[in-house]
Automatic annotation (TrEMBL):
It comes from Natronorubrum bangense JCM 10635. It holds the Pfam family Usp. Belongs to the universal stress protein A family. Coiled coil: none annotated. This is UspA domain-containing protein. It comes from the Archaea. Residues 4-146 form the UspA domain. InterPro entries: Rossmann-like_a/b/a_fold, Universal_stress_UspA, UspA.
Length: 154
């Protein structure tokens, strides 16, 4: 199975580990000349909380998710890293329930591999808070590389 497209699913908590996530993706993308899709899904509540900070006047119903994703952290840092490495990339955004939107995004871009970040959680934390990363891994249409960072809150 050839790897032509890699989806790197990120959120705002990934800002502190953007470089490590990019290195993980580049280990696959560079030798295979694969395209990277930087995917950032966010909920309506998240958008409402940050739309003024991002310079958007539009309410959630009128938003272009790709445009919002391009302005969210850590997307800009990742774009710079991939551009410097000479790797083809694009930015995709999605608005809705994060785990299902990331899986939909993987299907839409025909991803051959996904990279997601997360942190360790106890079974009790998962039961109470859920785990976006776990849901993505369980529903993914392709193999997933899970990047675990114990110091990052999910």
């Amino acid at each position: 199975m050839a790897i032509d497209t890699i989806l790197l699913a990120v959120g705002p908590m990934d800002t502190v580990r953007a470089e490590e996530l990019a290195d993980t993706v580049l280990e696959i993308a560079e030798p295979l000349d694969a395209k990277v899709v930087i995917g950032h899904a966010f909920t309506e509540d998240e958008y409402e909380d940050i739309h003024d900070d991002l310079g958007f006047d539009a309410r959630v119903d009128d938003v272009d998710p790709d445009e919002v994703a391009a302005k969210r952290s850590p997307v800009g840092d990742l774009e710079e890293i991939f551009a410097d490495a000479g790797v083809e990339y694009e930015v995709r955004g999605a608005l809705g329930e994060v785990s299902s939107k990331v899986v939909d995004m993987a299907i839409d871009v025909d991803a051959d591999r996904m990279v997601v970040g997360g942190r360790r959680r106890s079974p009790a934390e998962k039961a109470v808070l859920g785990s976006v990363s776990q849901e993505i891994i369980l529903q993914a249409p392709c193999p997933v590389t899970y990047f675990r960072d114990l110091d990052v809150m999910e």
